[in-house]
Amino acid sequence: MSETDNDSWWLATLGRTVVWARLREREAGTAEVFDSDGNTLAYDSIDTARAALMDAEFVSFEGLDEDDALARGFSLTEIAPPQARDDDGLRPQMLQSLGARA
To answer: CA nearest 49: which of 93, 9, 94, 96?
Structure first.
């Protein structure tokens, strides 16, 4: 199983900017969050990591529907989680500016 099988993407919005975070569940039951500053934050469990993300007003990208996205100021067609070969490649993509509203 690859590491990406245990990854989920979370987002928060600040105006017209999407802030991404990657939540990775580890085999031992611990978790890591790769944040928009390029830091990897360790947590004792996946539940603790999810709670920290929710406390910071992040939501799971996978759980969003179009109405949820529109309430946050964007359409699901405007965004997609960052993709790169490694964390260094992800770092510049963790903040995504959205286009101007029509």
So the answer is: 9
Secondary structure, 3-state, 37-93: CCCEEEECCHHHHHHHHHHCCCEEHHHCCHHHHHHCCCCHHHCCCCCCCCHHHHHHH
d(CA 42, CA 62) in angstroms, rounded, equals: 22
Q: pLDDT per residue over 35-83, tens digit each?
A: 999 999 999 999 999 999 999 999 999 999 999 999 998 999 989 999 9
CA 47 remoteness from chain centre: 15
Domain boundaries, the chain: 3-97
79: nearest Cα among 53, 60, 98: 98
pTM attached to this predicted model: 0.89
Residues 6+ apart with CB under 8 A from 93: 20, 82, 83, 84
How many angstroms from the chain centroid is the CA of residue 21? Answer: 3
